[in-house]
Design goal:
The chain has 159 residues and is of the alpha+beta class. The chain contains five helices and seven strands. The protein has a three-stranded antiparallel β-sheet, with no helix packed on it. A two-stranded parallel ribbon has the order 4-5. Strand 2 and strand 3 form a beta hairpin. Helix 1 packs across helix 2, helix 1 packs across helix 3 and helix 2 packs across helix 3. The N and C termini lie far apart (52 Å).
Length: 159
Amino acid sequence: MRNIRSFPAVRTLRARTDTGRAVRAALSVVCGRMGRMSEHPTGDALPEYAERVLDVADLIPAGRVMTYGDVAEWLDEGGPRQVGRVMALYGSAAPWWRVVRSDGRLLPGHELRALDHYRAENTPLREAPASAEGHLPRLDMRRARWDGVTGGGGGGTHT
């Protein structure tokens, strides 16, 4: 039997305990069936590194972003690819649209969903020139990037 970490589609679900504390309940999607990882025969929980990456994503204020490399540097562990892998496998219950590519391009395959979030949060965007493929804006990384320290809600206006 394969270890649950080897399955490509593992997700987390936010839940609240009786005390109101937010917790992550890990879910796995295996062969089209969704269930708690604790119900999986291996009983594996969310990997510790993944939990830390998702905790950083939760800290990013609305309207701001961090790159995959920023998150790895903030954790002082792993690198952009490891953070990207965590976000791909486990990030659906976290604000995934706030962990981005360093060039400001929107996540391929999720551009429109991410763009909805960016517009709702007033995340700074740069409009794409008419010659750009798909005419999708990019993130204005200079204005939207969060340093992991300073506060700040809405990042600015759309241009």
